C-alpha cells in the first residue's frame, strides 16, 4: 500500500504544531521514509489494566496497519528485552524495552541537532531504525553511524534500512562507549536516556560539535541536554526542555522488590517535612531530586487499605526515607548513612525560594572529571551542592566521575 499521502500529512501536522519548520530540509526525509516498514513484525498497543495487545503487519488489514503506523505516538515494538508482537496471541503483560518514538519527538530532536548536509552523525540507540533512515535520507548513508545494544533489535532495524535503500553503518554494541572507529563526529544524538552524558561521546565529537541526549536517572523528570564541545575537551550547554526515553540498558534502574516495610524498619530520625514529598510527582522537582541524590529511587506503593505510601531508597548506600501523611501534614522517617530527604528538601526549598524556575533554566558543563549543573548566576567552583553567591541566588550540583 502506497503511503505517500500519509507521509505528506504527517509532515503537514508537524509543521502545523510548530515542531517542523516549513522550510526545513527534514521535510523531504519525512515524506520519503515509510514509517510502517520500521515497525515489523508488529507493535504492542496499550489496553486497560496495564496489558498490551499485539498487532502484527501480517495479521492486520493494510489500511489499519497504516493508520496505526502514522499515529503521532510512540509504539512499543519489544517487551521485556525479547518479546515481539509476532510471538504471542492475546493480551500480555510486560515492560517496553524498544519502541518507535513518536514522530513529534523524533523530528523535534533532529531540528534541535542543527545538522548541516555535510555533517557526520553518531546515533546512540538505533531502535527500529526510523530516525536513522531520516538522517540517511538527508546526510547519505556514509554520514550516519548508529549503535544498538540489542542484537535482535539491530538486525530488524538493519533489514528495514536495507529495504528502504540505506546500507548505513549499523553497529551492535554498547552505545555508552560510542563508536570510536568512525570518530570524530559533527553531531551525537541519543534516542535513549542516560544518567549523564558519557565522556566517551565528548571525546568522539569534533570541537564545535553538538551532543543531544536525555539525561536523568528516573523514568520521568528527565531533561533534553544540548551541549557544544569546546576546544579544551569540555562541553557546555543547557537543558532545552523536558524529554522522556527508555534508559540505556546498562543504566536502567531495577525495580525494588520484597518487603518495603522491612527495608524501612530501622529509622535513625523522624520529623515533619518542610515541603510535601508529593512534589516529586512533578517534572522539575523530580529532575532536581535526581541531581541531588543520583542513586535514589522514588517509590509509590499501595498498601492494604488502598492508600499510597511514598518512599525514597538508595540501595547502594542502604539508605531510605519513608513518608506518612495525617491531618497535620507529612512526616518523614530516615535511615542509613545518607539523609536522602534532607538533601532533596534543601534543594527544593532553595528552588522554590528562587522562583521555581523551569527545567529550561538549567545549564551544564562536562569535563572528564565531573558534570556540573547550575541555575542562575555564574558557575560556582565550590563542592557544595547548593550555594548562594552574594545577593544573586544560584543553585549548583556537581557529580564527580573520579
Structure overview:
With 402 residues, the chain is of the alpha+beta class. Helices cover 23% and strands 30% of the residues. Helix 2 packs across helix 5 (130-139).
Distinctive features:
19 strands; single chain; 402 residues; five-stranded antiparallel β-sheet; globular; alpha+beta; 10 helices; ten-stranded mixed β-sheet
Q: Tell the overall outline.
A: globular
Residue share in helix = 10-25%
- Low-pLDDT parts are 378-393
Question: Main sheet: which strands, in order across?
Answer: 7-6-5-8-9-10-11-17-18-19
Strand fraction: 25-35%
Class from secondary-structure proportions: alpha+beta
Using the CA coordinates, give the radius of gyration: 22 Å
Topology summary:
Blueprint: H1 4-16, H2 26-32, E1 42-47, E2 51-56, H3 62-69, E3 75-79, E4 96-100, H4 103-112, E5 121-124, H5 130-139, E6 144-148, H6 151-163, E7 169-172, E8 185-194, H7 199-203, E9 205-215, E10 223-229, E11 235-242, H8 260-263, E12 269-272, H9 283-292, E13 297-302, E14 308-314, E15 319-326, E16 329-335, H10 340-353, E17 362-366, E18 370-375, E19 395-400
Parallel strand pairs: 5-6, 5-8, 6-7, 8-9
Antiparallel strand pairs: 1-2, 3-4, 9-10, 10-11, 11-17, 12-16, 13-14, 14-15, 15-16, 17-18, 18-19
Helix pairs in contact: 1-2, 2-5, 9-10
Amino acid at each position: 500500500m502506497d503511503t505517500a499521502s500519509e507521509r505528506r500529512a504527517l509532515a503537514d501536522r508537524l509543521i502545523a504544531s510548530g515542531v517542523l519548520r516549513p522550510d526545513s530540509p527534514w521535510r523531504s526525509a519525512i515524506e520519503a521514509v515509510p514509517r510502517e516498514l520500521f515497525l515489523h513484525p508488529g507493535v504492542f498497543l496499550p489496553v486497560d489494566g496495564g496489558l498490551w495487545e499485539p498487532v502484527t503487519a501480517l495479521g492486520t488489514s493494510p489500511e489499519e496497519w497504516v493508520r496505526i503506523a502514522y499515529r503521532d505516538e510512540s509504539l512499543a515494538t519489544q517487551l521485556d528485552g525479547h518479546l515481539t508482537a509476532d510471538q504471542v496471541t492475546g493480551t500480555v503483560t510486560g515492560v517496553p524495552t524498544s519502541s518507535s518514538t513518536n514522530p513529534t519527538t523524533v523530528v523535534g530532536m533532529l531540528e534541535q541537532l542543527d545538522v548541516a548536509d555535510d555533517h557526520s552523525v553518531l546515533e546512540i540507540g538505533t531502535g527500529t531504525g526510523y530516525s536513522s533512515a531520516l538522517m540517511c535520507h538527508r546526510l547519505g548513508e556514509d554520514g550516519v553511524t548508529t549503535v544498538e545494544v540489542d542484537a535482535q533489535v539491530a538486525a530488524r532495524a538493519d533489514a528495514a534500512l536495507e529495504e528502504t535503500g540505506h546500507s548505513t553503518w549499523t553497529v551492535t554494541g554498547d552505545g555508552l562507549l560510542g563508536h570510536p572507529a568512525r570518530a570524530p563526529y559533527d553531531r551525537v544524538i541519543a534516542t535513549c536516556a542516560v544518567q549523564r552524558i558519557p565522556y566517551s561521546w565528548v571525546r568522539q565529537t569534533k570541537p564545535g560539535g553538538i551532543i543531544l541526549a536525555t539525561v536523568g536517572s528516573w523514568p520521568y523528570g528527565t531533561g533534553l541536554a544540548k551541549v557544544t564541545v569546546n576546544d579544551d575537551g569540555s562541553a557546555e550547554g543547557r537543558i532545552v526542555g523536558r524529554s522522556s526515553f527508555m534508559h540505556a540498558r546498562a543504566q536502567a534502574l531495577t525495580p525494588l522488590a520484597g518487603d518495603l516495610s522491612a527495608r524501612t524498619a530501622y529509622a535513625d530520625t523522624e520529623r515533619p517535612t518542610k515541603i510535601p514529598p508529593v512534589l516529586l510527582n512533578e517534572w522539575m522537582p523530580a529532575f532536581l531530586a535526581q541531581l541531588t541524590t543520583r542513586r535514589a529511587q522514588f517509590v509509590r506503593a499501595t498498601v492494604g487499605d488502598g492508600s499510597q505510601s511514598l518512599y525514597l531508597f538508595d540501595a547502594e548506600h542502604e539508605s531510605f526515607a519513608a513518608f506518612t501523611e495525617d491531618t497535620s501534614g507529612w512526616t518523614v522517617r530516615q535511615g542509613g548513612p545518607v539523609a536522602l530527604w534532607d538533601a532533596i528538601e534543601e534543594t527544593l526549598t532553595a528552588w522554590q525560594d528562587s522562583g521555581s524556575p523551569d527545567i529550561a533554566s538549567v545549564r551544564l558543563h562536562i569535563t572528564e572529571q565531573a558534570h556540573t549543573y547550575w541555575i542562575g548566576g555564574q558557575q560556582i567552583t565550590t563542592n557544595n551542592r547548593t550555594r548562594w553567591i552574594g545577593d544573586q541566588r544560584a543553585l549548583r550540583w556537581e557529580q564527580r566521575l573520579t
